[in-house]
Amino acid sequence: MFQCKDVAEEASNYLEGDLPLRKRIGLFLHLVICSCCRNYLQQIRQTINTIATIHPTEEHQTDTKALAEKLRALSDSESR
Question: Which domain of life does the UniProt lineage start with (predicted)?
Fold first, then answer.
């Protein structure tokens, strides 16, 4: 039987339909009895819908190569 922590871990997979049938049924049965998890899933759905509606745009291009180098340098300095 699914527990609340399992719902939190599998929520996005559940919403996207990426769970095997057995897990999907188990999660569904948990949602039938747990109003907190139903609310949690509804909040995630609303967030996804809001983001899909807003279509955020990035104003700045992120230099991923420079960012990776900074993170690597930071990691190296912390490990010393």
Answer: Bacteria
